[in-house]
Design brief:
- There is one protein chain.
- The chain has helices at 3-14, 29-38, 41-72; strands at residues 17-20, 23-26.
- The chain is mostly helical.
- It has one domain (3-72).
- The longest helix is centred in the last third of the chain and has 32 residues, at 41-72.
- The radius of gyration is 23 Å and the shape is rod-shaped.
- Residues 1-11 have a biased composition (Basic residues).
- Residues 1-24 are annotated as: Disordered.
Amino acid sequence: MDTKASQKKHHRDSEATVTVSYERYERRSSDAELDRVTGSPDAYFDQARQTRRASQMAEMTIKLLESKEDKKE
């Protein structure tokens, strides 16, 4: 086995594995750096969920206001 490949594999094996959203994945130093900048993966998906919910609420509000406006006419 190539020593460089062996060292790389050993390095990857030595890093911690964590559970995020019930799926396991290998933690790498780039993941930790990304988490510091963007937040954890769970935080990202929570934000996406909240954004989607806000968008749906806005659509419902617009439809409600349009229907009220149509009733006035």
